Amino acid sequence: MESSGGNASRIRREIEALKDEKARIEQKILELENQLREEVSLAPQQQENESVCDGCCPSLSAADANLAHGLTAGSIYRYSRHLLLPSFGVQAQSNLLKSSILVVGAGGLGSPALLYLAASGVGRLGIVDHDVVELNNMHRQVIHTETYIGQPKVKSAAAACQSINSTIQIVEHEQALRTSNALEIMSQYDIVVDATDNAPSRYMISDCCVVLGKPLVSGAALGLEGQLTVYNYKGGPCYRCLFPMPPPATACQRCSDSGVLGVVPGIIGCLQALEAIKIASDVGEPLSGQMLLFDALSARIRSVKIRGRSPQCEVCGENTTFNQQRFKDFDYEKFTQSPLSTSPQKLKLLTPESRITSKEYKERVVSGEPHVLVDVRPEHHYKIVSLPKSLNIPLTSLEARVPEISSALKGQEEGGGSGANLYVICRRGNDSQRAVECLQNMGFDLAKDIVGGLESWANDVDPNFPMY
């Protein structure tokens, strides 16, 4: 008889297989529906043309109409609202259909950018991403659906774009963008949209665009704020012109650490699509030499002038020697002191003697060991979820609140004997190590960090413990 664990695994595999099949069927239905709409949209025109001369001359077809601009009858109908705009019209749409745009990142920024670029009629649309769809993506990464959880973001995004517009070419690059492949991938496109969320990627993408002579539409969103600009466009500055040296690694936050209101990257991503469309279609004034700043709480959007191209810029300056080979050899992680990887940072600041695993801590709780557990996460994190009887003292206020720790330890000693231990926990096990270092320097020699923090507790001790 198959064990309950083996049976559960089989059921999960069947569910995943059915989800894959469902996604393929839905995609095929959407493609056929798009084809049907194209055919239906042509039918009235064909009927009208056939009845023009009432049989006294050869019937006219769509091919006989004056389509000198090269747009097909289906394209005219699909993009008719674009064509009706005097400031956009036939030529801009024609330019758009001939263009190619690469979007690096299919996350919060890339999702709306990709959807609108596909819908607008970009001829060839490339997607670069190596991550998979997760449940905590859903509130902002609107290109993905729950059906694709656990599957590559590139495939999910490509299917969504194809379902909106089956007439354009979608190219999937299911890989992390690195110096080893960036030149090859980005050289295939006219315009690049940076929809990443980390400093080394921003420098790398900008430098590559300069080396290849590609305009770059760069956006960022964090918390309740966003910003947008266009780099390396018709003599405009590049990213390094504005930021020749990277900010401190501690100043570079990601959504996974600091949070973001889902609609904020949606707004910035839409604006990135707009700038890319303007460049590709050759209409309007792209946001070069200007930076758009968005504040969601006050609903304020303002544009500020930024410095122009710097003659001393290491990459695009007058005397630069930065070429493709230097780009390939450049270490962007070392330059920015932060990782290209989207996985959370894992510090190693303490000796093994100053750390215990979450399983070991669980055993000490069960045994009734007198101790104090200090949770050093910010208060608003602590309110989401916490371990029982933990004391919330955020890392930023640790030194000022040391007397509270001493008092708590004294209370444990009085209630359960001498020698109460001190343990420190955080979300992932980084801030807790910093806290233990600080506590040991202040005389709490036996303070220990819980390796991996609450994530380790959820993974190794209690699978039902909520994670965020």
From TrEMBL:
MF terms in GO: ATP binding; metal ion binding; molybdopterin-synthase adenylyltransferase activity; molybdopterin-synthase sulfurtransferase activity; thiosulfate-cyanide sulfurtransferase activity; URM1 activating enzyme activity
HAMAP family tied to this protein: MOCS3_Uba4
Entry GO terms, CC: cytosol
Cellular localisation: Cytoplasm, Cytosol
Protein name (Swiss-Prot/TrEMBL): Adenylyltransferase and sulfurtransferase MOCS3
Membrane-spanning segments: none
Purpose of the protein: Plays a central role in 2-thiolation of mcm(5)S(2)U at tRNA wobble positions of cytosolic tRNA(Lys), tRNA(Glu) and tRNA(Gln). Also essential during biosynthesis of the molybdenum cofactor. Acts by mediating the C-terminal thiocarboxylation of sulfur carriers URM1 and MOCS2A. Its N-terminus first activates URM1 and MOCS2A as acyl-adenylates (-COAMP), then the persulfide sulfur on the catalytic cysteine is transferred to URM1 and MOCS2A to form thiocarboxylation (-COSH) of their C-terminus.
Source species: Hibiscus syriacus (Rose of Sharon)
PROSITE patterns on file: RHODANESE_3 (PS50206)
UniProt cofactor note: Binds 1 zinc ion per subunit.
Any matching Pfam family: ThiF
